[in-house]
Amino acid sequence: xxxxxxxxxxxxxxxxxxxxxxxxxxxxxxxxxxxxxxxxxxxxxxxxxxxxxxxxxxxxxxxxxxxxxxxxxxxxxxxxxxxxxxxxxxxxxxxxxxxxxxxxxxxxxxxxxxxxxxxxxxxxxxxxxxxxxxxxxxxxxxxxxxxxxxxxxxxxxxxxxxxxxxxxxxxxxxxxxxxxxxxxxxxxxxxxxxxxxxxxxxxxxxxxxxxxxxxxxxxxxxxxxxxxxxxxxxxxxxxxxxxxxxxxxxxxxxxxxxxxxxxxxxxxxxxxxxxxxxxxxxxxxxxxxxxxxxxxxxxxxxxxxxxxxxxxxxxxxxxxxxxxxxxxxxxxxxxxxxxxxxxxxxxxxxxxxxxxxxxxxxxxxxxxxxxxxxxxxxxxxxxxxxxxxxxxxxxxxxxxxxxxxxxxxxxxxxxxxxxxxxxxxxxxxxxxxxxxxxxxxxxxxxxxxxxxxxxxxxxxxxxxxxxxxxxxxxxxxxxxxxxxxxxxxxxxxxxxxxxxxxxxxxxxxxxxxxxxxxxxxxxxxxxxxxxxxxxxxxxxxxxxxxxxxxxxxxxxxxxxxxxxxxxxxxxxxxxxxxxxxxxxxxxxxxxxxxxxxxxxxxxxxxxxxxxxxxxxxxxxxxxxxxxxxxxxxxxxxxxxxxxxxxxxxxxxxxxxxxxxxxxxxxxx
Length: 668
Prior knowledge:
Residues 1-12, 152-161, 265-271, 472-477 and 479-484 have low confidence and may be disordered. The radius of gyration is 33 Å and the shape is elongated. It starts with a helix and ends in an 11-residue tail after the last helix. It has 668 residues and is an alpha/beta fold.
């Protein structure tokens, strides 16, 4: 305790010595002394209506030394001289008010104790507190205003060359627009000069926000852009529906000016809106999905301080999970991926863009049992988030043995490793293609769901695959012995099922964008094909949320909203590129591919769907559970067929395990 006090006093001493050497400190201090005395003089003048007699003047001059000796040290102790005056904030103004009132109360207390306040007017001291606050706060705000006004007017920032500024018209006049304007005022080096705003609500027309006028309503955007000679547009609205965003985009395109949007809050881990994060409009904005409400405490209770292993960590969902996890301060993140490039990219992002994150990269495949055992022994994860999977439907139709090896066998070994190493929670990321599957990819993911249910503590019959024992007989022993494991375990298994993730490696959007860049045509399989879509940010957040809700053996379904027609998506993307569909760029229909559905589903017949306390998450109840030992026999036979690369045999084997699977043998 004594050392803490000593260190604090030493730090205060260093701060005071630095202030004493600062010429600006003495100038500010001198002005504050003059303002304190001026405040007291104004109090007397106002109270006595400028008619000061000799007694009142004597009291005034006699009290000045005490006034300065009380107020100035109190200003110092409250930290008013430690701030950077050019960045005076509302917090500083509140602090000035509190110090002004406190110092006046101390003065009144001294006078009451000294001479029972004889000869002094109480009104003078009330006025003194108000004038002191007004003058000192005005002094600080004037410093900030001068720095902002003149540094911005000169167009210089820290001696750098003059910044060319584009005339920026903002769409929106709410919180997001206010933050953008404030940042532009505080950072004169930014290459934009706000010239006006347009609002969605007519009642805001004619008002000003940080001195920038609201010209009119957004429907007259083209006229307002022409009138203020805008060079660029920014959609600065915090929450907006897909329909509204499409309307705004159409209005922006009519102006023929470049336009950008602020990212949705789900994309920003900190939740801060910044002009520096403005970006081009993309299809995620047009979906207009609602912001996810996360239960921070529940998620933090199983993430904070724990080791989290993410398979497929370099993929679209896996890498986004890494970013979203940072909010909850995990003890360590183990990044597991078989793609060297993707793994390197996410490791470098965590290392260089997020200081203090402890992340370990493991390059390998989830079906490598020895590697799994070593990783689990060394890092002892408490949570496993399993996103690794092959997901390209046409490729897996032609190469179904890869779906068996990666999606099924890899998931099987990973679940068993989690049981044997006593992982607390295991979250399987599934897909809507697992519902009444018509392709190998969907059938393989349905098998992983059945495995997850069979391995849940409630249903587990103690059966493990023979892989662990075969590995021990085949050479060097595993990192730990797994014989005589208890029939019960403590791992909570749960699955999360959702549709397509925008921009992922399996998504059609990157293909469409590439085709548009090449000048077309944009190829769509069928005019009636629809799919469910969500962003990677939303998917990752809801996976973490579902992981906090699972008791074991549940399949959670994320509400996907309305399905989107793929042909409509293609035409919207063409419009976003500044061209007209079917005129500038052809939309061509090429027919459904092997194993492809026209419509995807999130639940199948017989599955009982139940609401949860979270508005965007449902849970399936009443799932049939195949015993582990029965599953193992079928999966072992399937693995033999996969090793022989027997396409027809694999699909028939999948049909035995997943009776609702409708196999397409045309690709075999």
